[in-house]
Each structure stands twice: as C-alpha cells, then as structure tokens.
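Protein 1 of 2
SEQ + STRUCT:
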Amino acid sequence: MKKVIIEVPKERSEKTREQVKDVLYSVSERGGAVRFILYIPDDMLDELIHQTNGALPKHPRPLWTGLIPDYDAAEPDDRITLIEVSSPDFVISPFVDRIREQFSARKTESRTPIEKILASTESRTEFDRTTFILAAIAGLVALIGLFLNNVGIIIGAMLLSPLLGPIYALAVYTAIGDVRTTVRCVELLGLMVFMLVGIAALATFALSLVTPLPITPEILARQDPNAVFILMALLLGFATMTALSEGIPEGIAGVAIAAALLPPAIVTGISLVLSPAGAAKAAVLTLQNIVGLIAGSIAGAVFLHIGPRDILAQGFSQQLIYQILWFLTILIAFLVIVSFLI
C-alpha cells in the first residue's frame, strides 16, 4: 500500500476531494490549507496521477501538479501545496482492507510513476565530484587488474564504477523530451569517459617509467572491435532499464554498464602509451559500447512506456526519440564498417 498526503489551499479542496473520494481516508484543516490522507494499492499510484490529469510540467513547475487542480506556481505561500507519497510498514484498518480487496481483482499494469523515475535521476544530471572520484578509483583498479591479467580485480572495479547514472538519466530524459537535460547527460557521460581514458594514459606512462608493463590477454581482448559487441551493448542497455524498473538495486544493474564501458575505456588510455596502433581499435570498441548502451536504454524506456503524461509533450518526446534513434542507427552502421576496416 501507498500512503498519499495531499495538502492544498482551502479554495481548491473541493475539486481535490471529488477526485480522490473513492480512496479518501481522512480530511483535516489547518489554517488556510486542507490535508487529505489516502491509502491506495501500489499498482494504482500511477493510474491515480494519470486520471487526475497529471501533465508532466516544465520546470520550475513541480512534477506532481496533476493531483492539485488549478495549481499555480505563484502561490503566495507554497508551503500549503504539498504531495507526499510513502510506503508504510503495515496498515491496520477495515477501510484500507476494503480498498485492497476492491482493487485486488483488477488486472492493472504495474508501472512506476514517471515522477518517481525522474526523482531518482535528478542527482545523475549534475556534476558530482564524489561520483567522478569514485569513477577514477574504479578506473585505476581496473587498470591494475588489466596489467595483472586478473579478471577478479577487473570485476571488482566494475562494482565500484558509477557509469550507469548518466546513461540511465539520458534515456529517461530523452523519453520525456527534455532536450536540455539530455544534452547535459551526454556531456557528463563524455566527460567521465574522457577522464577514464586520461587517467589510464597518465597512470600507464608513470608506471612505465619504473617498471616494464606487459600487454596482457585481457588488454588485447579490448583491442578487438566487433559488430557483435554493439548487439551485446544494445541488449545490456535494454536489460538494465528493465531491471531498474523492477526495483533491482542500481549497484547490481550498473555492473552490466560498467562491464561494457570501463575496461575498453581504460585499455584505450593504456594503448595510447604502450600500443598506439591498438588505441584506435580500443577507442572504436568503447564508442560501439557507448552507442549501443544508449540506444538499448532508450529502447527500454520506450518499451516500459516511460514518457510525459501531457499529450502535446508526448508528441514532442516521440519525435525526439525518433530523431535520436535514427542518428544512433547511422552511427552504429558507421562503427560496424569501421570495425571491419581497422
């Protein structure tokens, strides 16, 4: 069950009461505000927001204004405009039991509300020093594993790597048609990958001054671009989006992304110092995986029906997705050709 608290100005309370009357548990007044408490099944949350005309608004409008009729961002006291959704450990109430029984027989599609998805990606759309430091550490650990030809150390680096965040956020914001945030996610992803390549190159150069560095089989394996890796990245991107939508922890789902991106990016930096001829191949493999992961993630977002609620916004987002997927298709074709030529 979900507990939903809606607080609105008194003059708008009657419209809200009418919209939530079937699941309304209690009403209380506080000054100029009215607070409604609802208990609804988990599967009903997205439907409730959708039925109350929850158009996905543009910033700075909040994302949940659909539950508050005639919401005005210029509210004199915005503290009396509130929606809070939580999951109580348990609820004991004949009324709540009746609601649960009423909706248990309904065959409704379980879907995570887009507002919750966006809230989970907000921290992934801005530069975060801690995230980049963690990515740098993961890159250095992967570099050690590659030089030692130790698969266990490489896998450990994948567990540390935070590469999932920008790709997941990019797919979500593409699906809702937010061009500005999508571009910012691309910038963050590109910056993170370039940082990994640069750190690997600098660390390799420094180590080469004090000790001979071998080109191990693990390194050579990441200098062999192949069209099959694009298919793998597509499937990984799609599977990761599906896993996250089912509540699988990001730390587990992110390993798939890190497996495709982290070692090739590190090998690109290593090759720039030790094997310039192999650097281009490693870079192509890295690009293949990046493009494949992005395309697969966006396809996963479309499959999961992630998108804005507003009809006009839906049209714009579909057009944006169509254009981006066409561009990615052309880029994938180009990378496939390149993989056969180098």
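Protein 2 of 2
SEQ + STRUCT:
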Amino acid sequence: MTADVVVVTWRSGERVLRCLERLAPQQPAERTFVVDNASEDGTVAGVRARFPDVRVLELRENRGFGAGVNAGAAIGDGEAIVLVNDDVEVREGFLEALLAPLAGDPSCGMVAAMTTIPGREEVDGFGIELDVTLAAYNRLRHQDSGARPGRLAMPSGGAAAYRRVAFEAAGGFDERLFAYGEDVDLGLRLRLAGWTAEQAPRARGVHLGGASVGVGSPRERRLGGFARGFLLGRYGIPHARHLPRTLVFETLVIGWGLVRHRTLTPLTSRVKGYRAARGERLGVPQEAIEPGIGWGTGLRRLRTR
C-alpha cells in the first residue's frame, strides 16, 4: 500500500527536523509532505537544507492543523494518508505497522498509532475514546502500554492513518476547527459513512505534546472550547438521559475557568463553536461510545485534564 506522510508544522525549528529524521528510514522522501503554516522563523529553510527531497508546502497564513492536513493530502496520491505531529518521533517499523490494518481489511478507514510520554513507557495516547457526553479522551493515557484500552472511537490526528478514498469522500478535516476536535469530527463522519477504526499497537512514537499551542494556555482553552461546542452542535449527545451529566461537566469546566483563570473563555468559545455547527445535526454512531466511562472516571479524568 502506498502512503503519503503529512507533517503540519508551525515555528517548530529543530522539532520537525527530529521528526523527519525518524521518518526518513521508513518512507521515500518524495512521499513525505511538510506543510508549513507561515512559520517565518527559518523552519522551512531548515527542512529544505536537511531533507532536500521532502516536499514542502508553504502556506501564506497559519490556517490551523486540519486545513494544513487537507492541503498536504491534496498534493499526494498515495492509497493512505499518514499523519504525524511535528513533535512526534516515531520508532522503527512505525509506518509498516500502521498501514497493516488498512491493507488487510477493506472496510477499515482509519488506524490509530500509540504514542508514549518522553522518557517513560507510559502511554500518551492510543487513539481516542468517547464517553456518553461525547467528551474525548486519549486511550490509555498515563497507563502502561500493556493495559487493556477502552473502545476505540477513532485515531488521534497526531499519529494516524486514513484510507484516502474514505478521507476524500468525507471531505477531509472540517477547516472551521483550527485545532482540537477535528480528528473526532472526521472519525465520527467516517463511522457514519460505514468505515471502521482499527488500532496498531506496534506503530509507536514518542510525543512531546502541547508544543504548538501550549498546554493550559489561554489559546488552548479558546480552541478547545470552540471544538467542544462545535461537536455538541453537530452531533449532540447519544441519548437524552445523558443530558444532566453533560450539563454538570460543562458547568464544572466553565466554573473552573472563571474561578481559577478569571475568564469566561470556556463559555464564550463553546457558544461560538455550537453556533458554527448549528443546523448540521448528524447524530452519534453508538459503536463509537465507550459505555464503561462512568461519572467517577469522567470526574477523575476531568480533574487531571
């Protein structure tokens, strides 16, 4: 199976160079695409100097992750589109393991890789699982790689593979989502179209995490809030009986923003996201929901997140 690797970057400097160095032994350079979101800091020059055969697409403005992926995917023709964050350093055999489920199952439209936390074998993420409020969590987050994961809803866009025909038929990533939530949205649309999601536990990489937006930054809260509102506006929740839990959890997040950070950004950004998706209700495929995430687990995850 042929594959195009798309790496979206913004002001990453050495970070993207380390990413490409790990990818180089696994992929022909002409099938690696770096999409630069108007870095203007020497990132592009560094990539071209160290990896002259890698194809670089320079965007005139920072269009976000999803739009960057769409632009990179559009200039390729591989049967699979592989996404690797610029702050992920893949391990040997990553690409072969990631493509195996697509090659072996024609109904598979997307595959999740596993990323670990730097300096540890602790898992950063192994795809995404969704609870009954449509909240998204990294599977096996902060657990051992051998632990039993929850139900896979879709891969995380930071380390994933998509079947090109599925990706293109779905229209790729929704570019209204600048960052966060775009992989959940695409995964749900692919499932609604009849495609399945698989996991590739041998496809591994180390993920620095939060390198582009900044963990806990005001920008992260704004973008994350918009994505949350957008997903609720487009899909709703799986069943009306889960509405009280959804309201409680959303109130806690908004209240924490007001008390801890003295900002209403979690609320205002959610409202903007909800309005952006209004009138597009698609519904939630039941097979994407992990029913084992109860109130207690959800509260613990919310607190650590």
